[in-house]
Design goal:
By secondary structure, the chain is an all-alpha fold. It has seven helices and no strands. The N terminus is likely disordered.
């Protein structure tokens, strides 16, 4: 895991910083985003469907398997390079590449958080289901409780919106004192994900 030191770059304007200092802030921002991305990936990997063969197609377990597959796809997706990334070594190209990496890392973190929240909802559904069934087969008198657990799952999934995820990241990053001047807005992240799907 990458451990980074927080610098309060937010109080400085780029013209007042040296080129090196600004690129250092960009590199540090990349490390911060990637650290959280890997943390989310690790937490998703801990959620493994644990069910009987008869429950394989239950909705919550299908969602959990889908989340694990999606998380793996995000993890192994190649970085989308451009010809300028490798052919130019100018100061301006270094700046553009760092900005591009910030965008790519932000998009991967965004995807992983969305997957993580869906996985958490599925795990909560699984826990509720197991508490109702107590390792037994579903009984008719348990139907209402099982339906309520599924309804709660749907409510949680509906609450996992792009705006919510973006705002939560922005708030926690700002509270941590991170340099956010070049963090991409939500629309840019969504455009990037459409252009480079995992």
């Amino acid at each position: 895991m990458v451990v980074s030191t927080v610098h309060d770059w937010s109080r400085c304007d780029e013209p007042l910083l040296t080129f090196f200092a600004v690129n250092e802030a960009r590199a540090l921002r990349i490390a911060e985003i990637v650290t959280e991305f890997h943390s989310l990936q690790s937490r998703i990997a801990e959620y493994s469907p644990n069910h009987s063969p008869d429950e394989y197609f239950e909705e919550g377990y299908e969602i959990l398997r889908q989340c694990r597959a999606e998380a793996q796809a995000v993890l192994v997706a190649p970085y989308p390079t451009e010809p300028s990334d490798v052919s130019s070594v100018s100061d301006d190209s270094e700046k553009r590449q760092l900005q591009r990496i910030i965008l790519d890392a932000s998009a991967r973190r965004f995807q992983s958080k969305k997957i993580y929240l869906r996985a958490v909802a599925a795990v909560r559904w699984s826990n509720a289901r197991n508490a109702i069934l107590q390792s037994g087969k579903p009984l008719q008198q348990q139907a209402v409780l099982l339906q309520q657990a599924t309804a709660n799952l749907h409510t949680e999934l509906a609450a996992v919106t792009d705006t919510r995820i973006f705002n939560e990241f922005w708030q926690t990053d700002a509270e941590a004192g991170y340099w956010l001047q070049e963090d991409p807005p939500l629309a840019t992240i969504l455009d990037w994900l459409r252009a480079y799907p995992a």
